[in-house]
Amino acid sequence: MFVAFDDTDSRRGMCTTYLCALLCEKLGVKKYPKLIRLNPNIPFKTRGNGAVAFEAEGDYEEIKKTVLKYVKKYSKVKDEKTNPGVVFIERLGSKEKKILREFYLRAVSELVTIKDAEKTAKKVGAEIHKFKNGRGIIGALAAVGADLPDRTFEFVAYRKRKIGERKIDSRSVYEMDEATYPDTFNNIDYKLKRILILPHGPDPVYCGIRGESPEIVEKAWKNIRPLEEIERTIIFVTNHGTDAHLRKKKIKEIKPYDCAIIDGTVVDEPIRMHGGHVFFSIKDSSGTIGCAAYKQTGDFREAILKLMPGDRIHAFGGISRYPDTLNLEKIKVLRLATLYEKVVPVCCAKNMKSAGKNKGYKCIKCGRKERKTRLREICRSIKLELYEATAGARRHLSKPLIRIKKKRRKQAA
Ligand code: ATP
Question: Model's pTM, two decimal places?
């Protein structure tokens, strides 16, 4: 049978994945449980909008009893934003799998409602349990539906002490990265000099290591030297780093909270605003939209600042509450506009001076005049390539360039 749940934690503690780890041990789950990230733009999330699902073997009623007991015991229901939802499905035929897959594809990319989830649950014969408003059934159903054509793995270690700073031998993280990157990814942000495998909240997660296979993330963990007691570990199969949330869209189709890839032409020169955020707009045949590369995205902004009106790009990102700005995760530069600059003529070994508006140039030494203005093509310093936010600012779902490049190399071989 399929078991899934979501929305059990709060910013003050717990983690839905920890509850999943406890239940997988208790129920003797054999296959890797799924940790599925959903739309990163939705306002209800605690942290990374993750939900979990697994397949359990045994008596339906017994399993249900155990899961509900654990969810009731561990969920932070006192927190006003915590609304747990639990889903049980005895078996899934191909029709039901398709319905759930479609639901997942919406939940990972758009805003869906609790009503949508209830209707879907009815269609596939899922038993749902809602605590408070039960919004967690959205994530839970989507997690069952996620079929992961591209998938990665995460090794998660949980700590005994559930609060305070995580203690680790930092050198071991660098050694781990050296031994396993790029088969593991997002371990360290070298530009910001930040270790990324350790979260910062008051929750049971000690660290999470992401990679291409269960074997590589397990190997990576063996390199880590924790300086505190580890309670348990688990490996999840996930949609981390797969771009599962992005859909090609026209500007006029975009709704609040959507994730999108827009094929657009740069309208105005990007500008750096107070605070370091960079803004510009793009247009397609249906309209115009603002794009933002926030300060947190690091040197990604340097690439953005090199864009010019007329450049064609794919803009990858998400919309928050207001559908007028796409928060950029990465861009692909598809075509560079040919731009020219005026060349100041030289006479008597010196740059000529302007002779007045529309009057050309004049030599300050010999007085010779030059009416014609010559133009020279500007050499662009941005390439027809993909540019991404620095690792520390990346969404869980964002596919790192290293994964894209690796796939291309594999296909070419
Ligand atoms: P953590 O990652 O620490 O487990 P979280 O960031 O996953 O926490 P939750 O506490 O699970 O956050 O809250 C997210 C809530 O949003 C859940 O109730 C989930 O069902 C719901 N949700 C997920 N995707 C969507 C969506 N596309 N539209 C509307 N609600 C969604």
Answer: 0.94
